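Box S1 | Example of a co-folding query
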Amino acid sequence: MTAAPETDAVTRAFEALEANRRALMVMSLPELFEEDPRRFQKFSLKLGSLLMDWSKTRVTATTMRLLVDLARAARLEEKRDAMFAGQRINTTEDRAVLHVALRNLSGAPILTDGRDVMPEVAAERERCLAFAEAVRSGALRGATGKRFNTIVNIGIGGSDLGPAMAAEALKPYGKRGLAVRFVSNVDGAHIADTLKGLDPARTLFVVVSKTFTTVETMTNAQTARNWIAQGLGEEAVGRHFAAVSTNLAAVNAFGIAEASMFRFWDWVGGRYSVWSAVGLSLMIAVGPRHFTAFLAGAERVDQHFRTAPLKRNMPVIMGLLGLWHRNVWSYASHAVLPYDQRLARLPAHLQQLDMESLGKGVTLEGKAVTRPTGPIIWGEPGTNGQHAFFQLLHQGTEVVPCDFLVAASPHERGRKHHDLLVANCLAQSQALMKGRSFEEARDQLIAKGLSKAEAEKLAPHRVFTGDRPSTTFLYRKLDPATLGMIVALYEHKVFVMAAILGINAFDQWGVELGKELATRLEPLVAGKTMDLAGLDASTAGLLEHLRRIRV
Ligand code: F6P
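Box S1 (continued) | Returned holo structure for 6-O-phosphono-beta-D-fructofuranose
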């Protein structure tokens, strides 16, 4: 498939949306609710028990129709089908994009270059799940014959964030006596703190790296290797390491046995890889049944994405709203606010997914983009965020579209905590939408006993403009299938935005320059070379100061 630059049809579709935005400026969100009692029914959608409510965003039926027109103008369905058909849509790396094959539990053929990838996918998944089960059951033990009680995942970016986020999210499905920890940062503090208190005889390392060359991961893996060798002897190393990679030669060179090597393929992008062998630590943590349910949740979303009409297609609507906010309303950031403590790492995972995919400055043809691309993604679990940055969300000068995520039921017994959590979640989106006028603020103060003059002086500080958009995702419980759905929804949302903007969501050249410069600077930092000639004055000055003060 050759991707087109922005066509006249896309330009016209954006112009129509711009006109719609101007027309909507005269109506506030509360007015839109007053005008249409069926607003919630019109702007919400269910997929299983998961409900998406975008009625608190500034859209009308006309907006939704124009957004769907935009998707059609950009040939979204054709581009989506090209991905599922295994075409090489990652043009700068000349690769297919087939993470959907990893959760294709139906086993129906998925072809790339005329070859069905499903037999290999299924076989590797079976190997991973069997390995996970063997660790869990104690059939697979360390060099001294002891059962493993801790799995340490070593990886970074997509080889860390997905599994780390999901392992935290699915803690209630973990196994008693088996902990999973994650090391990513090259900062020695991370691995030192992670290994503290662990028994080498009972620790299994899973080294995850698509390339098996990433310096952070290789440095941490080497440190872990030394730790095992020191604690148990060199010959124990092989029994305490597993590897996940596409680079089998490098894994071999590291000394990890063939039976403990699990592979995936170049058509799986790092940030889309949790569904593959990259999820090995998660598989060990939750076991084969729950991991399969996680895949099944994602598969359900894939089927929906492929078949539902655009106007009732959840990830398509998420992507279109993303463009509506970023490109038509010019909102530069987007907050992800899980009212679900175990989704604490979801914002971090989505930061990589969204910002590495959409943070691009050129189109697929290498031309400078003419529209803003991805927003800045950020967030923290509610209610913690309420006591930190929500002030800005409610009264700051930046409007930040928010995603709220909340479960109807908790895993814990007793409803007190959860009822409060849900009430806070609903209250926040309500407050963002409705706001509070000057008159309301003033009258509240007068009712509290303040004089009219005092009330009028203080009231401006208590005014909430409202009209701030948010989308709420409400699901039954954070179980493996629901988590799979949530993650896959966001993946396809990103696909939709990239397809319409005409950018490549699957490469990440923007991370390269820093890596190259770090490689050049390392000898200067380490003191292997002292010559600062040719460096810019700031970097040279910083290195000089470092040399003076380091102990
Ligand atoms: O530096 C960015 C990146 O390439 C990510 O895209 C990727 O998820 C991460 O590094 C880790 O790469 P690898 O799995 O090859 O170690």
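The first helix runs from residue 8 to 24. The chain has a mean pLDDT of 96.
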